[in-house]
Structure formats: structure tokens, C-alpha cells
Amino acid sequence: MQRMPANVWLLTLIQALALSAGTMFVLAGGVLGAQITPDPKWSTLPLAMSIVGTACGVVPVTRLMQRFGRKPVFIFTSSFGAVITLFAAASIANSSFTGLVISAFLLGVVMSAIQQIRFTAMESVSIELMPKAASTVLLGGLVAAILGPELVTIGQLITEQIFVGAFYLMAALLLLCSFLFTRIDNTHVAQHKSAETGRKLSVIASQPVFILAVSASVVGYALMSFIMTATPVHMHVHEAYSLQDTKWVIQSHIFAMFFPSLFSGWLISKLGTSKSIYLGLSAYITTILIALTGSQWLSYWSALVLLGIGWNFLFVGGTVLLAKSYQPSERFKVQGLNEFLVFGCQATAALSAGIFLYLIEWRGLLLASFIIIAVQLIVISWQQVRQKNLQLNNSIS
Questions:
Q1: How far is CA 233 from CA 64, 104, 220, 240, 395, in A?
Q2: Residue 189's beta-bridge partner residues?
Q3: What element of type H or E holds 225?
Q4: Is residue 194 part of a domain?
Q5: How many domains does the chain have?
Q6: What is the dihedral of CA 192, 7, 313, 320, to 10 degrees?
Q7: CATH number assigned to the domain comprising residue 232
Q8: pLDDT digits (tens, 9 = 90+) for 221-266
Q9: Which residue from 169, 198, 328, 367 lies 20 to 30 Å from 1 (Cα-Cα)?
């Protein structure tokens, strides 16, 4: 059995630390937004803007990595993120909603670089080990699920004002990530534009395998974000659950997002990506049904845990499938397009979550989620038929 190279394990450690900053903001963003927003409809705007920042950052970040190499871009963006978190802490201390939103957007740009860690890990191994490398790196999320929300509690030992100390700790974590990035192997060095080869992006994007890959990741992220963004606001602000109870639900959800990575790489290799995607969608359907049963704490917890598990199967399956849609020389433009579509749709979902929660309340938001699942099932069926027809035509010719 082939072993994971040291580069993959180092990237997993960095992923754990960097995602801790992100998971902390998942809890803090919604609650802070609700506390200092001038209008309740925009309580989820800070968290949504962090996702908008990720969507806006993916194309420039991948282009910079193509031009200068992955390693220097990782080092710069994580250092820049530390500066931004200090600005966020100052904004919170002064109850500046505008400052918080700007900070959230810029942190999202930083996270668009962190999202490239999984591709960097896959480039460190052979084709056979790619599913395992992708799932191994996501194991860093297990640490982030525990450490991220706990930064809020630990941060209160630094400053009395809630969340300010947590952002100080976030800055320290990102500086540590910047140092660790100096120790990784650079899986891609600078490439001049004249060296770009490969098919046109429109040709690649028309392939059934590309559409299946992107749609799985898009639905995985968008629907997860739609429900997850609304949950802490609904629980803490509308249902008056304590911050501790709300934190435990979000913490469990994030843990469940990454725990299946212990076996999802192996399972995808055995079952195939299509069946894994169906498993993810089944988990999402069950999530909605449980969440509709009532407002008990256990209902929220069970639903959010299943939501995390479903996300893992959809996201890892989509990532592995995407690698089959491009040649090595095409990777940056394809990865950039994939990330833009995924996080663009996630941003739309996060932005609309607060508005849906305000207009049609929690049950209406859950029922609307069924539409997204129905569309994804239609897309899977359609593209699988296209894929079989293409294979049949190729075998005949």
C-alpha cells in the first residue's frame, strides 16, 4: 500500500489551523451580525460576504498561483489574513457593522487560497491516491470543528468583549499557517502565460463529467450554506437558545463535515463517485425531514450532523470527479472556474438565507431546499445519460 507523502500531512496540519479561523467565523459571523446590524434582514450579511469574498477571490488566486507558483501565494494570503482579522477585531470593538462586513469579505478572499490546499495535496500523489489525498487533507477539518468555535471561549480570557479575543487568536493562527507554508513542497512553480496549453474552457465545461463534478460541489456547498447560515441566527436569536447550545450544534455540524474523510476516499474508490453523490443527497433529504419535525435542540443537532455528512460525500465526490475532466496543463483554469461556480452559488445561498428566514421563516426555508435537491437529481440523471451516449458513440467510432 502506498503511503501519503509528508507534503500531504503538512498540508493537512495547515488546513486544520486555517479552517479553525473559518469555523470560528461561522459561529461568530451570524451572531455578531444579528447583534450589531441596523436591520434584522441583514443579520447573515457578514457571513454571506465572507463567502462572496471567496467567490470573488478564486479566479485571481488561481491565476496568481499559475503565474508565481502555489507556495508564495499561500504565504502571502495567510499573512494578509492575519492583518485583516485584527481589523475585524477593531470593528467589533467599535460596533462597526460596515467594518465587520468589509473584514468578512477580505477574509473570504484569503479562504479562496486555503481552498486550493486540496488540489495541492492531490498534485503531490499519483492518480490512484488522489481520492485518498483529497479526503486526508479534509481531515484537518476535524481539528477545526473543535478548535474554531472554542476560540470564542478562549478569546474571552484575553478580552472581556465577546468575539474580540477570538479574532486576535485567529490572527495568530494565520501567522502560524504562513510560516508552515514556507515548509511545503511547491507542487506548481511559476508558469508563463505563453506556456499555457490545452482545450478551450468552453469545450471542457461542456463535458458531462465536468457538469456532474461541478453540480455536486455546487449543491453540496450551496445547500449546506443555506441551512447552516440560518441555523445559529434562528436558534440563538429567534428560539432563544444559549450561545453554548448554538455553538455545540455548529461545532457538531462542522465535525460531521470532515469526519467522513476517514473513510470517504476509500468508499468513493469502491462505490464510484455517482453513488457517493447519491448518498450525499440522501443525507440532505433526511436533514430537511428531521429539521421539519420541531424546534427541539436534538432536532437541530441531528439535522446539522447529517447536513455535514452529506456535504462531505458531495464535495469529495465532486472534487475527485473534477480531476477527470481536465489535463494537467488545463488544471488552473478549470479549478478556477469550478471554485468560482461553487463559491458564487454558496455566496448566493448565504446571502439569501437571512432574507428567506426573515420572510418565510425556518420551515419555509427548509421546504425551499427541496427544490435545489430536485434540480440536482435531474442534472445527475441527464448527464449520466449524456455520458453513456458519448461512451457508446466513441466505442462505435
A1: 36, 17, 21, 10, 54
A2: 69
A3: helix 208-232
A4: no
A5: 1
A6: 40
A7: 1.20.1250.20
A8: 899 988 988 888 888 777 878 878 888 888 889 889 888 888 877 7
A9: 328
